[in-house]
């Protein structure tokens, strides 16, 4: 399943609102907080070896 990025996965604002330089720099160190497909807030768990983020609609991503 291919999904199009519609929402910023850090601030939850539309990707079409232009560049999100603050979000891009923060995402180098932090996991996503919002689903980029549906804008739902995700359940995020940070572990010593990485992170996981779960959207109730689109499932889990890991990093």
Automatic annotation (TrEMBL):
Q: What is this protein called?
A: Biotin synthase auxiliary protein
| Source organism of the structure | Micromonospora ureilytica
Highest taxon of the lineage: Bacteria
Q: Any idea where the Biotin synthase auxiliary protein C-terminal domain is?
A: 42-62
Enumerate the cofactors the protein uses: iron-sulfur cluster
Listed InterPro entries: BsaP_C (IPR058605)
Extract the Pfam families matched here.
Answer: BsaP
Q: What is this protein for, i.e. what is its function?
A: Required for the activity of the biotin synthase BioB.
Keyword set, alphabetical order: Biotin biosynthesis, Iron, Metal-binding
What does the sequence similarity comment in the record state about its family? Belongs to the BsaP family.
